[in-house]
Amino acid sequence: MYAKDPPSNGACRSISRPTFADLVAMEPKLGQLLREARRIRDTGEDEVFCANAIWFGWHGGPGFKPRLSRLVGWYSGQAGILATAMSYDVAFEAIYNALPVCRGNCSCL
User: FRET label pair with 61: which of 48, 70, 78, 102, CA 20 to 30 Å apart?
Assistant: First the structure.
């Protein structure tokens, strides 16, 4: 993997993939998002549960994706490793995978 902004000589520098814990140490709000995702439950009361609806904020919720994008990745305004797509991917995987799986006739299935 490569950092977002290569050195000015045009050569890309290789960087190690951070862990989610590494990212939280640099941006504690990522840990808050993970805890929030872990609190979401599929109660089974509705006919459908859609993790993507929660992730993107469909149906009026705040969504995780827009909040994550402000904390990590190319469009976050962060510097260093937090500004990389690789860091976004690490955070996305941790937080999205904490959500309950889709169930019923949701648009994902």
Answer: 78
Q: Is 2 helix (H, G, I), strand (E, B) or coil?
A: strand
CB 50 within 8 A of CB 59: no
Q: Are 69 and 75 in contact (CB under 8 A)?
A: yes
Give, rounded to a whole angstrom, the gap between the first and last alpha carbons of the chain: 31
Boundaries of every domain in the chain = 20-96
Q: Is 42 left (phi over 0), alpha (psi -120 to 50) or beta?
A: beta
Kindly report, residue by residue over 5-35, the tens digit of the pLDDT.
Answer: 444 444 456 678 999 999 999 999 999 999 9
| pTM of model > 0.90 | no
